[in-house]
Amino acid sequence: MTESKFNDFVNIVKRLRKECPWDSAQTNESIRAATIEEAYEVVHAIDDNDYEELKKELGDLLLHVVFHTEIAGETAGFSINDVIDSIQEKLIRRHPHIFGNVQVKDAEDVKQNWEKLKMAEGRKSVLDGLPSSLPALLRAHRMQEKASKVGFDWSEKADVWHKVEEEIAEFREAEAEGDKKKMEEELGDLLFAITNYSRFLNLHPEDALRNSIHKFERRFRYVEEKLAELGKTPSDSNLEEMDKYWNEIKATEHSD
Question: Which of 39, 72, 123, 197 could form a disulfide with 128 if both were Cys (CB 3.0 to 4.6 A apart)?
Fold first, then answer.
């Protein structure tokens, strides 16, 4: 049943590609941004713990996988079966502890073996494969993680925090000098150091920042709603009034 449904789905996409004026005009480049957007909508559904929405968003993402395959296949000559064969081969190759005779102790061993296997496949650097289009915070975290897998890492958490404090001092020094270019450089170093420290705490900085953004958005929308009940907007208000409602929703969240 599942295989039949998947084939039906692929055939629908094939037909759209041939018969729909919009779909037939698209290229891999023209829908690239939309693919990224769909991936983030999947993440948003996960953040909201909304499984009904997640089901829909995964469907949208699957559409992009099949659609990109159909478009690229017209030039490169591969099909969805080739895409599936490729990922199946890679999964088997990179899991020798499942499909071979390699012994591992834990998940950390699996991660280290994964990086070694990728290097054996012809990569010149352990940092290869990190898309430059990744959000900077996520890319920094993944880069540090990859370097760690080959032993390029701090041994003590305290030393990592000392580096954070050092970068704070250097940023404040650049700020005092008023050198904007230097400030930007030191701010980047500070963010990089904090990202590294979060890794030692087993916290994901991208998740942490995204949660803080959601929290700010939730609270600020509450402020707007309370002002709207008075027939006002933030522009008609002042900081003291907005702070009152901000602290109100903050206190409610803490009590919950």
Answer: 123
